[in-house]
Design a protein that fits this description.
This protein is of the alpha/beta class. Helices cover 43% and strands 14% of the residues. The relative contact order is 0.14.
């Protein structure tokens, strides 16, 4: 097991996970802490991040620090970058998890829902990544590149909106931007990949997955028969951020139980 432990280890690495107080961000941060990393957790709700960091520190191995950080404005991103720089000189891993959504019927979908959602999910993601690239490059080597993971969605892969028109468009943009940055940053020894999750329990999906009964109902629509679990995110995070994933860049990893391959077409069979 020593070789496997080393292959998937993130011990000694420093990571920033945005929007990590709840949901998928917290799942990723948990995996990194349990893998031995030092994890900086930031979201607009700094008190929640501090509380989560305390809970993760109780797990042992790695460590966590929680504080406030807002990627919805240029000023907020500048403050977050300054906070990260005050805590560490190098950054091995950046997980751009922070995101927002907006749901409304097609006839009622508001103009302002586009700027708000794209501003956080795409503009904020790009700007934070650009500002932290020097720290990532400093931590990178040929044998162990720095890692960026962006949060996309199965909704950015499949043509469905469920009333979240700006959200689904923003996640498709995240996927394309991920491939663009993977090409551009490869020479700097930085890999760039994205998760494209299906349904997981989170604050954003609480309207449909908050209870076990709701989660089971949604899970029945997934080919594999269930919604995602925390270990599904943690395992994928450790893979992409450890030596095991050092040769992977530009990938949009579907964590969706088969939804990205799901379709309703039939040619000859009933």
């Amino acid at each position: 097991m020593a070789h496997l432990d080393e292959l998937f280890s993130v011990a000694g690495k420093t990571a920033l996970v945005t929007g990590a107080a709840t949901g998928i961000g917290r799942m990723a941060a948990t995996g990194l802490v349990q893998g031995g990393a030092r994890v900086l957790i930031a979201s607009r709700k700094g008190a929640d991040c501090a509380r989560v960091a305390e809970e993760l520190n109780a797990l042992g191995k790695g460590s966590a620090e929680g504080f406030s950080g807002d990627v919805s404005t240029e000023e907020g991103i500048a403050a977050l970058v300054a906070e990260v720089r005050s805590r560490t000189d190098t950054l091995h891993i950046l997980i751009n998890n922070a995101g927002v959504s907006w749901g409304a019927e097609y006839e009622d979908f508001p103009y302002g829902a586009w700027a708000k959602v794209l501003g956080v999910n795409v503009t904020g993601l790009f700007h934070l990544t650009r500002e932290l690239t020097p720290m990532l490059e400093k931590a990178a080597s040929d044998e162990d590149p720095a890692r960026i993971i962006n949060l996309g969605s199965v909704m950015g892969t499949q043509p469905m909106a469920d009333g979240a028109y700006s959200y689904t468009a923003s996640k498709a943009a995240v996927h394309h931007l991920t491939r663009t940055l993977a090409n551009e940053l490869a020479a700097r020894r930085i890999t760039v990949n994205a998760f494209a999750p299906g349904p997981f329990q989170s604050r954003m999906t609480a309207f449909a997955t908050a209870t076990d009964e709701q989660a089971d109902k949604v899970g029945k629509r997934v080919p594999i028969g269930r919604i995602g679990a925390p270990d599904d995110i943690a395992g994928a995070t450790l893979y992409l951020c450890s030596r095991a994933g050092s040769y992977v860049t530009g990938a949009i990893l579907p964590l969706d139980g088969g939804q990205s391959a799901q379709h309703g077409m039939t040619l000859f069979k009933e």
